[in-house]
Design goal:
Number of helices of chain A: 11
Radius of gyration of chain B: 30 Å
Shape of chain A: globular
Oligomer: heterodimer
Strand content of chain A: under 5%
Order of helices and strands of chain B: HHHHHHHHEEHHHHHHHHHHHH
Low-confidence stretches of chain B: 1-18, 379-384
Largest sheet of chain A: none
Strand order of the largest sheet of chain B: 1-2
Mean pLDDT of chain A: 85
Largest sheet of chain B: 2 strands, antiparallel
Distance between the termini of chain A: 79 Å
Structural class of chain B: mainly alpha
Number of strands of chain A: 0
Shape of chain B: elongated
Amino acid sequence: MQDIGLDIILIGILIKTTLQMATPLVLTALGGMFSEKSGVVNIGLEGMMLMGAFTAVWATYLTENPWIGVVAATLAGGLLAAVHGIVCVKFKGNHIVSGTGIILFGVGFTTLMINATWGVTGDSPSISPHELPKVNLPFLADVPILNAFSQMSPIIYMMFIVAILAWYVMYKTPFGLRLRAAGEDPSALDTAGVNVEWMRFIGVFISGCLAGLGGAYLSIGFNTLFRKLMTSGRGFIALAALIFGNWTPIGTFLAGMFFGFLNGLPNVIQVAIQIWPGLEYLQIYVDWIATLPYFLVVVALAGIRKSIPPKGIAKPYEKERKQ
Amino acid sequence: MGQQEATISEQQSDRRPSGYLRGAPSAIIAKFTDRGFQKQAVWVTFSVILALLVSAVIMAMAGYDAGTAFTYLLVGAIREPDRVVQFATPLILTGLSVALAFKCGLFNIGAEGQLYVGSMAAAVVGYAMAFPYLIHPILCFMVAAVFGALYAFVPGLLKAYRGAHEVVTTMMLSYAAILITSWLVGPYGPFFDSAGSQLIPQTPLLQDTAILPTIGGHYMHAGILVSLLAVIGVDFLVNRTVLGYEMRAVGENESAADYAGINSKRRVTVALTISGGLAGVAGGGEIMGTYGRFIHDWSPGLGWDGITVAVLGSNNPWGVLAGAIFFAALKVGGNSMQQSAHVPIEMVGVIQGLVVLFVAAPRIIEWIQTQSFDYTSWARSEESFPVEHFVGTSLSIGGIFVSFGLLATMGRTFLVDGTLFTIAMITLAAFGSFLSRSRNIDLLMTLSIIGWFAAFLAGFLAGEFLVWILSGIFGVLCLFDLVLIRRAERTYYIKQEVPE
């Protein structure tokens, strides 16, 4: 391994960190896309992620099988999203108000349940021998940069599949067309004989499932325990990624990857400063370097184009009374 | 003579209530007698009650004593009003900040960042410069407002003229602000307290002249006066000025406002700038009143809580005031609940979340109304049913309580707990369908009977006396009621088919 240069190793670490940081963001942001494309603003992603992260650990702890944990996390996220869906779609509530409630509930409930289930505060006990098995790709192990893709959690690979599926479903299936129509022009969809409320509800439910999966990656894919507030604002960053990606599957995927890269960059810079000779003076400016990407996002967003949300977003659809 | 003069002046004042100051009391009273405000207030109160009910169920499931918890929640909040005010002081300002942006159709999700920038500026002016009493804090507040406003001015400009979505820009700038202020007060930054503890990145203590005096109890500081002034100011701005009117118009419908000749771009920028200024003032007040210095990462999410407070107050400044006080009271009460009833303070978060969820959906009350209207009309037309259905409703309520109550003392075998949980869900559904007079009552009753008997068996096998005896009783009662319902239905339909 002596012949591999430091730069190659660093690039490998960078790719790996990016993928690890981006997976929950991309999954959650794609989920958010399903909800917002169908016309329901979902700022409660953070709460759904937390719910998923907690349920994953809880179910794994009970059954000692991480895959049941993943499924339970997906369902738990979907369940919380269903509450959001009922409030927003059936009761025509304000989407942002409801989303705020979802976040507060998710944060409070998961932290409370750590205490109620295990009698501890802050961190849940580790599920250590039962975490998700890493996928081993032996043929990549010796390739310099690509070996970053080996030895990763299966949810990372799932993320790529979900991204492709999201694009396919959204643009190549009748379901996707109807979902988009529910967000762009609900009355036209209603005229075509499709139940707008049901489409929107399904959109919100999918968003919760994907956010729950993203949370599950955080707790049993990347870590082996659930920590109080472990998503630390990732739901909001996913929301930003969704807007930055202009509400399209590909854009959202790329934006999620980019934000994951930004999230991981400070860690990689720390490593680089330590192993690269002659970079010690940068230690002083680490905070500034970590800040730069955030400014870059602002500049990029201002420079590229106008954000165009779905037209019917945040507007409850009222069928005209036929009497 | 005097009387006559008085009546004349009264008439005059009636005809033209001149001057804002003279009109102020009646204007404030008018706000509380306003129908929309009353409706909102009633709905919020109702949401609080609903939320407390649901959280009582959650507490019972998690194995806590809900009654004791609520008692200490209330007692704790009443016992320490000064703490409540202290917590409410910054929340009022961040809530106003978010609410003002909402009024103009903007979602200022990055109030946290503006708060950090404002508080940083206030801290620097507070410790590094010398001014006399009274002038120093006012100056700090002004600097905090200016810096917070500047930090929101940039995203406002980008939103108005470049279409950059404010959710992304303000949030990104907010993360940047937290990092930058951390660096500024850190060991490499210019504002590091090199004389104090080397471990915590923080500024030196503020000078005595800049510290806000305590004006009541141990914690209530003068910042609350600024917050109250801000409430009045924002209310005035939004409801009584042209600028506020135009901002609201832009928030309602931007293209219509443009068509009416309002420069919507400029209004958007101004709204976000003022919003940032309010968040900055909130940060400055906390530094001067509570913390005494800028410590890195000091805010416990005040900017985020501002969103919730704005939402609770439905973006009305006085509503924000009430929402912030409610929020703070829950926080203070939560502390006492944790100490005395041993329920974790996070329960407060659950209650807040539920309150907000219910506030979001005022149509729940309409829905319940229509359900109960259906119920009464149905009860009037058919005399034989209500008794059986009343028994069934009571049985399902009882079932909910019993199953959740048994679940609350967890730690049995998986089988027993699982069955109990299933029954709990079924009885909840049965209760719902009894209320909504749904047709699947029979099915749900059958299911719950099966569930009760399953629990009876499981409890018997596991040797749980309380479980099997209670589920046995409920199973038999439900079976009895199902038979009654079926018989009543049959006689009813036979009567219908064979009219005399």
